[in-house]
Amino acid sequence: MEHKFPEIRTMQQMLDEASELPPAPAAIVGAGSEHVLHAAIAAADAGLIEPMLFGPKARIAPLLEAFGADFPIVDTPTPEATAKEAVAAVLDERVRLLVKGDIHTDVFLRPIIRQLRRGPRISHVFVAELATYHKLLYITDAVINIEPDIRAKAEILQNAVNLTWWLGNHRTRVAALSAIETVNPAIASTLDAACLAKMGERGQIEHAQVDGPLAFDNAISAESARLKGINSPVCGHADVLLVPDLVSGNILYKDLEYLAGADFAGVVVGACVPVVLTSRSDPEFSRMASLALARVAEHRQQSLDPLSPEEAVVVDPPTG
């Protein structure tokens, strides 16, 4: 399939492209708090989204009036009902983005996993921009899948590669991370990484060049790899870092943010619409960048690989 979009190389390029698109109808799921409404209003003012607010109207309406804003409200009595109504809005094609507000992540995701999955698994991807690295760095999965097995890692990896492909990277370089860069049967993540590398070599991971196991230093530093005698086109040029599990990924993400000054955007992929998971501790730039990422990904995905909610795979949530 011919790729007609340029590669997104910087956060600013992503923000600029998003600002040139029409705002997308977006469900703000759990909109009954000041910080959530403030973020939604800022995103609407920036032209990124047209918010539809889901949650108890008795709580949302006074806040909305205090902010001097006017958005449609879908009145729901409980968090579970709020999440279900937001998914129904996707199925009815009233919204094209889902944004987590003041609602527990598991409650928010449960009907999404149940009704909106496009393939076998949903997963989360962080996109990092660092002054010390020469390209955007994608990290997966540090949010949703806790201890994925080899099959789940392959699904998580393909989701991330699909995202990079939509954003213009025709041949994504993937580092399957572990603590060391050699296969050691005592460290399960090295075995998984080696299997994923072989799967990539045989085309089972599309649009990607996969190597592993790689430690973090030789994944991002060609000099570190050279000193260790590792000859790999991924080393020093990785686009995607596949972490062994949620704990290590979460630590890596927070280290890069708080100690290395990385700017982050994040999105859930694997559903028929992009999903944004926000946190009260996220800086405003990260919130806006995440919405821009979701908006650009949604626009490009629909242009390159059109989806409709009818294509969602309705199955029981995965247990792994």
Key words describing this protein structure:
320 residues, five-stranded parallel β-sheet, 11 helices, elongated, disordered C terminus
Q: How would you portray this structure in words?
A:
With 320 residues, this protein is an alpha/beta fold. The protein has helices at 11-20, 34-45, 57-67, 79-91, 105-115, 150-166, 188-201, 216-220, 222-227, 246-258, 284-304; strands at residues 24-29, 49-55, 73-75, 97-100, 123-129, 137-140, 172-177, 208-214, 240-242, 263-269, 275-276. It has a six-stranded mixed sheet, sandwiched between helices. A five-stranded parallel sheet has the order 3-2-1-4-11, sandwiched between helices. α1 (11-20) packs across α11 (284-304) and α4 packs parallel to α5 (105-115). The chain is elongated and about 65 Å long. Mean pLDDT is 92; it is low at 316-320.
Summarize the structure.
This protein has 320 residues and is an alpha/beta fold.
